[in-house]
Amino acid sequence: MLQPSNLCIMELPFAESYKIKMVEPIRKSSREERETWIRDAGYNLFRLKSDQVFIDLLTDSGTGAMSDKQWSEMMLGDESYAGASSYYKMKNAISEVLGFDHFLPTHQGRAAENVLFSVLIKEGDIIPGNTHFDTTKGHIEFRKAVPVDCTIDEAFDTTLSHPFKGNLDPLKLENILKSHSDKIPFIIVTVTCNSSGGQPVSIENLKMVRQLADKYGKIVIFDSARFAENAYFIKLREDGFKDKSIRYIVREMFSCADVMTMSAKKDAIVNMGGFIAMRSKELHAKASMFNIMFEGYITYGGMSGRDMNALAQGLYEGTEFEYLETRIRQVGYLGQRLMDFGIPVQQPIGGHAVFVDAKRFLPNLAKEEFQAQTLAVELYLEAGIRGVEIGALLADRDPVSRENRYPVLELMRLAIPRRVYTYNHMDVVAVALKNIYDRRDTIRKGLKIVDEAPIMRHFTVALDLA
Ligand SMILES: *Cc1c(COP(=O)(O)O)cnc(C)c1O
Asked: 111 Cβ partners below 8 Å, 6+ apart?
């Protein structure tokens, strides 16, 4: 028998906190097929059919796999028009997990924005925050108001490592509050900050925002799609939270907010759904009118009972540490593989996605030729993988001058759906991108716009080879 001193005890590797009960086949295609399909789609990945895609990293929104418990909850849905038990299940979950007493269901996150902003925003208003999400920005600009980005400068340098790149800069925020206080109805904080790379905001920073809001008498709204992923990063990175539970940190975060909008398609792990939650009964009453007009009666707001049940269950599952660890480590694994290949990515790796820096990946291309979109098309052609552009197409034109806006960062986002793909899928993505990286000098032409919509053009834009 071996003596203990001869044993080499290996640390057990990390493994997912769930096993798979149901599968959905996916299909590979040939490069020739993909060349035809992407041309027919106007070089816009949104316009592809899903069965033309092998690994779909277009978004983590509504693409997650529900658990057995969530599916069971679907069967218990109460489809009563008014006062359904499913509404009360959702109300309890929101109260327990997030700490808000009042809420309105909506069919998704942007619907929550539409309802809430109908109450709070008027023409000429200014809305400071960290980088506003595209639908949030759309709903602000549609009302002829102006979003002002107060994110810290560090967020715009992809090479710089900073634990909380979603943070707001106190000086930028106070300057705008000081100079335009009468035009500012609220401050909006996106947790995690999607547009700057799924980057978290610290509790310290949220408290700073709260203090400034109180000083100037402003409401604080959290755009909360990935609040649980934000809490996970706080636990890992912020002093004083290592031993706190995710639920505790979530409550601590939301103690700094008056109102939250939620796209439940992210951290509540459902395929459709959203809500607005608030402390003020008065705001609830005002928003109810718009909810009834745009979404549905206040106890269902565009959701069926079964969907409200699944959402309630998802709020509990989405705030479990083991689940979050599984999820965020998988995203981190893909990011690490890309970094090992020398591929330029936004660092540190965010919660829901890896963001490839297309300006540094394709330095030979001019920004007018849409570097990030070109890279996304290349990746699709290489292996049938669908990422998404977060760059000049998404940034759209200036609403007044109609000139193209070129953001500081041209990113290609690879968003990882929750509980859907395996580590092998991540390996395919990493190797496909490495192959493109190795021949990057041969990519000398980008894309040009052929046809575009007047607002949020990226969804439908048609492009051609430049
Ligand atoms: C997805 C998202 C939204 C919009 O939600 P939808 O459910 O897609 O309408 C708003 N804000 C953030 C930060 C998001 O990620």
From this structure: 274, 294, 295, 301, 302
Residues with CB under 6 A from ligand 1: 61, 108-110, 133, 135-136, 190, 194, 223, 225, 263, 265-266, 274
For the domain spanning 69-317, the CATH number is 3.40.640.10
User: Is 406 annotated as catalytic?
Assistant: no
Say how many Å lie between the CA of residue 225 and the centre of ligand 1: 6
Task: Kindly list the domain boundaries of the chain, sorted by start residue.
Answer: 31-53+321-465, 69-317
Q: Which CATH architecture has domain 31-53+321-465?
A: Alpha-Beta Complex (3.90)
Phi, psi of 164 (to 5 degrees): -135, 70
Name the DSSP letter for residue 16: -
56, 60, 125, 134: the active-site residue: 134
Residue-wise pLDDT tens digits, 394-445? 988 988 899 999 998 899 999 999 999 999 999 999 999 999 999 999 999 9
Tokens 């002093």 sit at which residue?
Answer: 239
Label each residue of 118-170 as H, E or C. HHHCCCCCEEEECCCCHHHHHHHHHCCCEEEECECHHHHCCCCCCCCCCCECH
pLDDT surpassing 70 at residue 16: yes
Question: Could you give the CA distance from residue 133 to residue 154 in angstroms, rounded to a whole number?
Answer: 18
Question: Which residues partner with 55 through β-bridges?
Answer: 385
Residues 6+ apart with CB under 8 A from 18: 67, 323, 326, 419
Query: What is the model's pTM?
Result: 0.94
